[in-house]
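Worked example

This section walks through a single chain of length 53. The input is the sequence exactly as stored; nothing has been trimmed or padded.
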Amino acid sequence: MAGLEVPSWDPQAALVIGVVLFEAIVLYVGYGGLERLVGSHLIDAFVGGDDTA
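Given that input, the structure is written out below as tokens.
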């Protein structure tokens, strides 16, 4: 049957996928924390502190 074959396991490809996923999680958490720390200060600096939205 065409298309139902199970591909062979490639540990190097799995390692690359794991590293990319780990990097994505680290960046997501890191940028989220950075936004919490300095996000409001940057918005105040650029907009002028008017927070009456």
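What to look for: Residues 16-44 form one domain.
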